[in-house]
Amino acid sequence: MTEQKNKLKIGMARAVFEPVLARLSQHFDVVSNQSDAVLSKAQIIEMLKDCDGAFTTGGDRIDAEVFAACPKLKIVANMAVGYNNFDIPAFNAAHVQATNTPDVLTETTADFGFALMMATARRITESERFLRAGKWNKWGFDMFAGSDIHGATLGILGMGRIGQGIARRGSHGFGMKVIYHNRSKLDAATEDSCRASYVTKEKLLKTADHLVLVLPYSPENHHTIGAAELAQMKPTATLVNIARGGIVDDAALAEALKNQVIAAAGIDVFEGEPSVHPDLLTVPNVVLTPHIASSSVPTRMAMANLAADNLIDFFAGREVRTPINTLPARASA
Ligand code: GLV
Q1: Residues 23, 244, 277, 300: which is the catalytic one?
Q2: Which of 206, 204, 212 lies closest to 117, judged by CA?
Q3: What domains can be seen in the chain, in order of their start residue?
Q4: What integer is the mean pLDDT of 43-57?
């Protein structure tokens, strides 16, 4: 880690693009981590104990223990739209601003969800492994025959901005029938723009040919998809998880894939990542990617710049651009 001299001090939990680090360094003393070491909780606390602000990513847990040890901390800017790594009641209790990076990643993440669904349905990585292994010695009439995307029923669980982007791609681009389930039904204009219909969770599970999960993680939706839910799906169906690890019971999913309870899955997020359940690594009918749904160069740059903007604006006395919590004004002395 390298430290530079300025006024307010910002701790970077992970590495970032050099131009973003340079921007931050114009405003702050920056404790950087360009070697990208994954810091333990104790190391994060050690780094932030005399910092005024922090730049984190989705893997860095920030909670009451951090605030107790880092009393100067006033803002933590997460370079992710999801913020289940933040204990928001603890932020509020410690009067610390939390920010995330919504919107700038919506279309890129929707592209990836769609790509993962297509790769899963059309068995792209499974067939590539076969070819690379030198096993392709003749054409076969049903070789890696998968399922169609066009005209199929696309089910979306979690119909926020990214879910809506996937719905639009499916209905407008591929003639899919789109159904969704969400905490609340969307207004009619949004449903029309996505050409999507609200259904119960049970109907979604039973009817979707391809089910994509895009809901935020919370303890209440831990294992939203487990053995019982997988058993309700069509045996020809595919499941895609670009939401968060823990929404799917990965052990139950591996078992369901092994027993052909569903046809295939595409998984970008895992329980306990970067560890992957060992059974998922041995079943052939799953496409596995290392949490990269928002990872295009322009989008990751936009996310990093937005997190930086939030820090810069906050300490310049301006409104942060993308707040997670609203802090009550402090009573004046
Ligand atoms: C990525 O998972 C994010 O929340 O931005």
Answers
A1: 244
A2: 212
A3: 9-101+296-315 (3.40.50.720), 106-288 (3.40.50.720)
A4: 98
